[in-house]
Amino acid sequence: MTYVARPISRLADLRSGDWTLKRYSIRHGAAPFDPARFDGGRALALGAIPISAKDQGRCGAGFIIEHQGNSVDYLVLGWWDRENELPLRVYVRDSGAPWRSARGGESVCVWDLQVIWAERQAYVGTVMNAAIRDGVSAYLRHDTLSLVTDAPETTSARVT
Question: How many CA atoms lie within 13 A of 40 on its CB side?
Fold first, then answer.
């Protein structure tokens, strides 16, 4: 398999109770992103997030990645917990099938990891930065996509 960069976009934040989740799309191929494909996955994800958003080291912030794949769609949920931890949940929808929790070896992929890494950098630079007064607000406003880049020389790296 040859690596090819995929378009990554920031979507409108998703709010649920006291939670604010930054939302991203990743898409394979030339087809436009279809947010309706992820309605069932979002419902599953929101059912998995802790009810209490701001409790015991939880800041009420996280992110969702809606990855429109080639033949399978993935939704990745991550939220900041216990001050410095990132619980992740992955949901999968095979073409035409209902959404379900990931199983077996199903997990995040190299494109999802671009967003997860950028979110880690944003969290460390804002919420965990003692010099920033309201780190959570700064985190939610952070231009995370500026951290999600593929250098031209790496966009077609050969995977062995």
Answer: 13
